[in-house]
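## retry 2 of 3
previous attempt timed out at serialization; input unchanged, resubmitting
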Amino acid sequence: MTTVVETKSGADQRTGWYRRMLEIRLFEDKVQELFMQGKIQGTTHLCQGHEAVSVGAVSAIEARDYLTITYRGHGHALARGMSMVAAYGELMGRTSGCCNGVGGSMHLTDFSKNLIGAFAIIGAGLPVAVGAGLSAKMRGTDSVALSFSGDGGSNIGTFHEALNMAAVWKVPVVFVIENNLYGEYSPIRETTPLDDLAERAKGYAMPGVIVDGQDVDAVHAVVAEAVARARAGEGPTLIEAKTYRYRGHSRTDPAKYRAEGELERWKLRDPIVILGDRLGLSDDERKSLQDEVQAAVDAAAVEAEQAPLPTLEEIENYVYAA
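## retry succeeded, writing output
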């Protein structure tokens, strides 16, 4: 049965969540700036507007738990504790990057944080998360795997295969769909026959939960409940967080395919503003925090860029041949 959950968490971590969400927002703004300056090559997929999902969900798992993320995953990686220097370095192809500059924007990975993969192939992280959760179960540990996908990812074969396998074997894994209403450039109603993707959980006999993806408290609460359920041996959960991306699909996409006024309506429920209001932050406090985080973002970008590019010999260390 699909349920809709709206709840609030305790106040202990919430100022930290606000700061982390602000960091993600300003980090992504800086990524666009660096891309336009030619300092980031290749494609980038930004997540402004998704901050409550990444911070709310990732803050609900422990260090011993596993995480797989999508190509729109900068926010997930930062929420997991990756440094901005390591993230910027990877985007700029520098040796300061988390993968020594050879992975790029779509491959922010850090095994020291159990961030075991960011995947450019849609849906590819889902079976990896099932494998990680299954390995924990077979080894007798209580680690859980958390896996992000987009609404478009729920139409991919690996989505259904992963959910089916996780349900049959009661794998300790939590699947989070970030439903931002668009699969690349296509509105969800043109590609998917239902609005509530959590309904798909019914086909795999697992709980399906819909949550407001603009509300970090609500996201944290439902993911924490699903993680506890998985850790207790009760199997997987599918969570659909309804959110919105403020920018286009990638790079310089102006997103002209959006309906007039749609972006403005979603910005009225900005996740950072919502949490700031709940915390009772004054305009001066918000400005002070923003200035502080902006300075850290700018400094991280400068530090990351100062590292050298990887040499051909270093790049060859990551190339395999039979």
